[in-house]
Structure formats: C-alpha cells, structure tokens
Amino acid sequence: MKVIIGAGSQQWPGWTATHQDQLDLLRRNTWEEWFGERRADALLCEHVFEHLTEQEARDASKICFDFLKPGGFLRVAVPDGYFRNEEYQNTVKIGGPGPADHPAAGHRSVFNYNTLTQVLRSAGFSVDVLEYCDDGGRFHFNHWDWSSGPIYRSLLSDHRNSLNELGFVSLIVDAIKPR
Q1: How far is the C-alpha of 33 from the C-alpha of 163, rounded, in Å?
Q2: Do 38 and 1 touch, CB atoms closer than 8 A?
C-alpha cells in the first residue's frame, strides 16, 4: 500500500491520494480509522510539512512512523531553506507572500537538511537525503528512483529547472523505518 498524504491534485499510478479530512498529520484517530490494522509500504508527502511547526512536524513524523511497515519509507519534499534564491525564499518564507489565499500563506516552517533530518530521526527513522542545498547554498543531487515515489517539485521533474539553471528545488528525503 502506497499513500500520498495531502495529495491536493496529485495522482500517481499505484498510489492512493488522500487529503487532510482523511489523514490529518496531527490527528492520530484519522489514521487509526483509515488504516485500521493495515500498514503502508510507502508514504509520500510533497510540500506538506512546511505547513506544520517544527513540533507538529515531529508529532506528524511519529504518526507516519507508526503507520508504516518495517522497512517502509516516508518520502518528504519541502522548500529548501538553504536554496540561494531571494525570490524563492520570499515565496516559501513563513507566512508566505501576498494575500491570505496564496498557497504559501500557510507556511509555518522553513526546513533545511539539518532541521528536517533531526525532526525525522526524532521519530525513529533513518534518513537518506536525496536532493538538498548545503549551508553554503550549493545544490546536491543523490540519484534516487522517481518511480518509487514521484516528486514533481524535484530537479528532474519541475518545469522551472533546466540543465543551465535551477528555478525551483526541494529538499527531498527518504525517512526509512528500520526492519
């Protein structure tokens, strides 16, 4: 079982798309009702965790950990706090730009690879960092299998990126539940 959390309009073959009213990252009872005794092989969470405070992200990580099978993974993509692009950082900042109906208006955290891995490790996960900027702003790409958990806002998929210029990057990690 592979589940997209906070799918919005995302639909990927082989994945079940869910929304906050079905699986709320902060309400364990929604997970208990939806999953019952079942556990997921993989969870996909693209640009959702930035809508949580750091403590809420820790709590959500624990819930995800508990509803994964041993050896399963949670793939998380968030805006990268270390990406050196002023327009990007203005767009992804806490509170976001512009009017209240802008998607970034609900941003409550801006993560970098250090803070996000700490959050996920606090729940018991081991973490592989797939795409990220280091604290100097340099972008790193570690080969990962898109078919195992697609992330649109990634180096190879996002239409804003080219071979010559990064227009939009995400911090992407796999959080793996030990066997």
Answers
A1: 45
A2: yes
Token pair belonging to 87: 């327009």
Cα-based angle 77, 139, 160 (whole degrees, multiple of 5): 65
104 has pLDDT over 80: no
Per-domain boundaries in the chain: 2-176
CA separation for the pair 175, 178 (Å, rounded): 10
What percentage of the chain reaches a pLDDT higher than 70?
96
Bridge partners of residue 175, in order along the sequence: 74, 127
CATH architecture of 2-176: 3-Layer(aba) Sandwich (3.40)
Query: Has residue 76 got a pLDDT over 80?
Result: yes
Report d(CA 47, CA 141) in Å as an integer.
Answer: 18
